[in-house]
Specification:
NAD(P)-bd_dom_sf, globular, NmrA-like, 11 strands, two-stranded parallel ribbon
Length: 284
């Protein structure tokens, strides 16, 4: 049996879809109020309720470990590992981030690398997945609206990112959870070509038929907007570091993890945008 954590997020949903497509049985760990959003067998699970861990992992052999962005992230991983040992879990697939092993690294990278070390030291077979920036971020966080013209305000400068299709990452998750030969390995996952924010928006404009404009704002303006929204100070700092990675041209590195696992190249942003156009048209 496979247990997915983080299934209501971008990569969790992609992993569920890939497992459904493969016809593989699995269950999803969700908080009680989130069950309606998941079309799969669910089991109650709350990262902040230690009593929920053991029941969620009963009978589980393969655990997909995706924790929320939180200052408690490493603690969540430690508790999950301890419970996984008691439950007899045989394989943990950990979703980390590209650059987790950078030195000294940014806040989120350091958190994920600390979590990676705990997974590797657990005594349970492990696989680490390190994706880069998700294409879906353009919609979920950056301000692109698929059905109308939009303006995106980010402090990314002209830096490029090797945007990754979440569907690719979901397929990789499903593959390493259901096939042998991936234990003890780290896979870095990117798209096929680095694009600046302006270039990415131009591709989306061409595919979706709307005008998407990029406005490069100062870090100070972006920081103030996030602070004014009530975002925790540590997370504001972490997100500003992410934008600086792009702006300083540290996010354009390409990796072949998708090719290694799936035996095919990763999807380009244009392919993802074309798929989004069809989805948007189908829901209209």
């Amino acid at each position: 049996m496979i247990l997915l954590t983080g299934a209501t997020g971008t990569i969790g949903r992609a992993a569920m879809h890939a497992l459904h497509t493969a016809g593989v049985p699995f269950k999803v760990a969700v908080r009680s109020g989130s069950r309606a959003a998941v079309k799969a067998e669910t089991v109650r699970f709350d990262w902040d309720d230690l009593s929920s861990y053991q029941r969620a992992m009963e009978g589980v052999e393969h655990l997909f470990l995706l924790t929320p962005n939180s200052e408690r992230q490493v603690g969540y991983v430690l508790q999950a590992i301890a419970t996984a040992k008691r439950a007899g879990v045989k394989h943990i697939v950990r979703l980390s981030v590209m650059g987790a092993d950078a030195d000294p690294g940014i806040i989120l990278e350091r958190q994920h690398f600390a979590a990676e070390r705990e997974v590797k030291a657990s005594g349970i077979a492990w696989t680490i997945l390190r994706p880069t920036f998700f294409m879906d971020n353009l919609i979920n966080y950056y301000g692109v609206v698929p059905t109308r013209d939009s303006t995106v305000y980010l402090p990314n400068g002209d830096g490029k990112a090797a945007w990754a299709d979440p569907a690719d990452i979901g397929e990789v998750v499903a593959k390493v959870l259901t096939h042998d030969g991936y234990a003890g390995k780290v896979y870095e996952l990117t798209g096929p070509d680095p694009l600046s924010t302006a270039e990415a928006l131009q591709v989306m404009s061409e595919e979706l038929g709307h005008k998407y404009t990029y406005v490069n704002v100062t870090e100070e303006a972006a920081r103030k907007a996030q602070e004014d929204s009530g975002m925790p100070a540590w997370l504001v700092d972490a997100l500003m570091e992410l934008h600086s990675l792009v702006r300083l041209h540290h996010a354009s590195t390409l990796a072949d993890g998708v090719q290694q696992v799936l035996g095919r190249p990763p999807h380009a942003l244009r392919e993802w945008a074309a798929r989004l156009r069809l989805q948007t048209a189908g829901s209209a």
